[in-house]
Amino acid sequence: MRLKPLTLVLALGCLGAVSACTRSSSTNAGAPAAPVPVTTLEVTNQDFLDMDIYVISAPIGTRLRLGTARGNTTTKLTIPESVLLSGGTPLKFLADPVGRTRTSVSSSIVVNRGDIVTLRIPPG
Asked: Phi/psi of residue 20, each to 5°?
C-alpha cells in the first residue's frame, strides 16, 4: 500500500511535533546557572555628614553615582558590572558631602569582579 504525499507530510509533521515536545531545551536542563559575582563597596562613614558616593572609571574618567552613605554608619553599595572591565579595573571613589563643598577622591585601586572594597571616611 502506497501512502499519498500529503498523508506522508502530515505524518512526519506530527512525529516532529511530538519529538520536539519531549526534548529538553538545553543539555544542562535543571542545572543552576553560574551566579554572577557581585562587586561591593563597603563605606564606613565616621563623619556626621551624609556623603554621596561616586565611582570614577580610571581609563575613561566617567563618574557614576553609587548611592548615599549616611553619617556615622556603614553602608554597602553595589558596583555595577558596566563599570568593570575584564580582568582588573582601576577605579577611584569620590565622597561628596551633602550640602557642603569638601569633596574627597580616593587613590586609584584595581578592582576585580566579586571583590569587596572598603572605603573609610574619617570624621571632620
From this structure: -70, -35
